[in-house]
Structure formats: structure tokens, C-alpha cells
Amino acid sequence: MPPRTTLPADVSSTSFARALGELRGVVGAAYVLAEDEQLVPYRKLMIPAAEEDHQPSGAILPASVQHVQGVLSVCNRYKIPVWPISTGRNLGYGSAAPATSGQLILDLKRMDRILEVDPVLCTALVEPGVTYQQLHDYLRDRNIALWLDFPGDGPLVGPLGNTLERGTGSTPYGDHFAECCGMEVVLADGRVLRTGMGSLPRSASWQVFKYGYGPYLDGLFTQSNFAVVTKLGLWLMPAPVAYRTLLVQYPDDQGLAKGVETARPLRLSGTIRNPCRLSNATWMLTAFMRRAELYQGSGPVPDDVILAAARQHGIAPWSLTFTLYGTPEQIAPSLDIATRAFESSGAQIVTDYHDGSQANELNLSSFSLLNWVGGGGLVWLAPVSPARGSDAVRQRDIAKSILSMHGMDYLAAPTVYGRDLHHLTAVLFDHGDPQALERARACFRDLATTFADNGYGLHRVGVDFMDEVARTYGETRRDVNRALKRALDPNGILAPGKSGIHR
Ligand code: ADP
Predict the structure, then answer these.
(1) Which tens digits make up the pLDDT trace of 43-55?
(2) CATH second-level architecture of 242-453?
(3) pTM above 0.90, yes or no
(4) How far apart are the first and last CA of the chain?
């Protein structure tokens, strides 16, 4: 058996071997993975990064909070960094790999209990390894009329990891952090903190009131490395009596600005309660064909080629979808208001559209995006802007020109959440082709830098760009993060480099 190729920084192989021995005592020998081939799943990347920069030194799979405490105690003594993951997919942001090489993956997938679902208060309490599919099946099997909101890779991933990354979905509960209530976290020194009302012994209200007393702490444990989160409270949406999904089609490129300008007031007035997702024709085409079937030339697929193919499939240059939820009596007036608003902005409306992600149907249809180029390479870019047509167009122009400079297509789903718009853009490439990988990497760097220079920051980023994006948010922000880090994790053993936070 070849030895591990990667040790934690400043830890000798003897001391690492001794630590692994102690860790076997904590979680059981079968749950300490340190052999090369056992670590393959933790190394695989979709993002355009070099695997050797994100090599785990091993993986530990605890089954309980006590195990997590035991692991952290050993790691503190040996100064071994751990990288916690829950369902460990994080697709397009770094998968299960750590931000820096040498970290032990703290894989929490064995902690997969649905601890509670309250059908009256519409709440749940879950462990890290619970997947959306598991929770979905649990509710269905018990006839509990609650809906889930999930990201595009829904069935594979879980609410805890996605909420910690401040992921998003497509229903009125689409802002996942906004819909969580109460966490249990294990601090680096092994103490267990329950946030919000959970700090009160025998609390009756942990999953129903977020703030408790004193500073509201939950945000500190998202996109951070200040603790290991072991339980999360969720708010779930009561299944609506009825719903109606609409597709709004704009006949030309003006549709981007018009869609945003029309959607924002409807979102802010509450007429539309879920995020309004725009998609360009290329994004929509990925459901029907691969790039190579359309175009063999160099550079991005020309606009006229895309538009001709889109027409054949009934796809508009810009499409927008949203869903109205409620009783038929509630839906009728909203339908009337929204339809009139979009029609007078120049769109055509399909009133009986279907999109499972807006209606509690888990599937993998969003993965068709990956077939466009093939080869499995994907990195997401989601610069935030105000939900104004002019900003969306400016973002589109920046994205399109930089992608095109690097020979890549613009595939975008700019989404109006409310006052904010996230210009979700997929950078796709063949991961097996070193030149394509290098091009995607250079392209992503250009995009991230140019967006930040124009005032549009990224709100989530892969493990290879965390330092760079953290720098765009300024030195004071970094100093505060560092001060918190030193206070909560003095040995810096939790996920060094996460969100650009180091000791
Ligand atoms: P998903 O499989 O839902 O995409 P992951 O489990 O990969 O999500 O988690 C995404 C990221 O969130 C991880 O890379 C890690 O940085 C962080 N994370 C996940 N679970 C935890 C946890 N329990 N405690 C602290 N951080 C976590």
C-alpha cells in the first residue's frame, strides 16, 4: 500500500500516524480512511482547479456529536486541520475537497437522522447527512403535507450543507438561510452550543423563534470555519392547495431588462412569492441538445446560431418562470395582475408551464446543463446586483464579453429574489482537457475580478478562489473574520482557508 501523499502542514508522519490511531479509538477503525484509494471520492473536482492543491490527508466519519467532540480533541492536540462536509457534494464549488491540502475530511454523512418533523408548526430538525430526497420520502411516507425547497442538485444534497453555504432554491422558501431556525454546533474546544432559543435548557421554542436573547449568532456559522454544525432547524412550506407555474417569453434581448423591471415590483408586493428566474436561450437549449451538435467552430456559439436552434425548440431569447401558490381564489387575482404586467412589457405568456423545482418535485433535470460541453467541468459564478434592468444588462455585457474572450458560451439564469438579483452563470468545460481547464480557470478569474471592480461581489465561491474573493470584500472584513477565528478556534484546526479565513 503506498503511503499517503499528503500530510497536514507542520505535522510529522509519526505524529500523524499516532493521531490516526487515536482517531480510530474515537470513531472505530473502519471510519478512519487514510489509504490513497479510499480518498478518491474526496479528491474529485468539477471546478477548474488542480487536484494536488486540494488533497485531503484522510477522512474521518463520526456517527455522533460525541464522536465529533472526540475528533476535535485529538485534532487540537496534534494541530491537525479538519474540513467538515455534510452530504459533501458542493457541485461546482469544490465538491468534497478542502480549501488547502493536508486537511482531514470530517465527513458527517453517517449522522443522517431526521430528528423531528412538526406538521403543525411546519418545522424540522435534521442532522448533517440528511438529504433532501430522504426528507422528501419521509414526508411522503407519513402523508405530511409539507413542501421542500432545494437547489438544482436537490436529490443528491442536503438541507444542512446547502443552508450553511447560503444556497438557494425556487419556491417561496428559496432563501435557505432565511428559512432555518436554530443550530447545534460543536465549537473547536468541544463545547456544544445551541443557538437562538436552543441555549435555554428544556427550550420549547428552538425551531420556532430564531433570535433567542443577545446577539444573533447563526450567521457566524454559515460560509465560515468557526464550528462544526451538527443539527439544523428548518422551516418547511405548508403544501399549497393549488399552484400555477407560468413561462414568460420575451422575443428579443430587451427581455432581460424588461423581465427584471417587471418581476421586481411583483416580488416586492408579494404578488409573486417565489424567485423569478430568467434564462437565456443557450441555458434553455441545454435541455435539448449538446453544443457540438450545433456548432463546430472556434469561440462561443454565435448568437444567430443559438437563436435559430432556440426557435426550432420554441425557446425565446429570454424566458422567465415563476409560480403562484395558494387557493384557486388566491391565485386568480395574482394571475391576472402578473399576466397583465408581463404582457404589457412585451412578453408572451404560457400559463400552464411545468417546473418541478418550483413544486416540490425532486429530479436531476438541471444536470442537462453539463451535457452542453461534456467532460464534467463546471464552476458557478453568481455575482449579486440590485434587481434593476440596467444592472442586469451591465452584468450580462461583462459576462458575455469575458466569456467570449476565452472562447466560452454565456449560459445564464439571472434570478430576481427581491431587491437583489443573482446573475447565476455556468462556466462549463471539459475537465479532462488540461487546456480547457486552464482556459476556464483564467476566465473565472477575469470574471470574478471584473465583476468585483464593477461593484458586483460574488456571494459564494469554490474552494480554489476563496482567498481572492475574500480580498475583494476588504481588509476590515478580513480582520474581523480573523479576530473571530482566533477567539473561537485558537489552534486554527477548523477548515483553514474556508471563505478566505485563516488563523
Ligand atoms: P452539499 O452536499 O449540500 O452540496 P456539503 O456537505 O458539500 O453540501 O457542504 C458544503 C460546504 O459547507 C462544505 O464544503 C463545508 O465548507 C461547509 N459545511 C458542510 N457541512 C458543514 C458542517 N456540518 N459544519 C460546518 N461546515 C460545513
Answers:
(1) 999 999 999 999 9
(2) 3-Layer(aba) Sandwich (3.40)
(3) yes
(4) 35
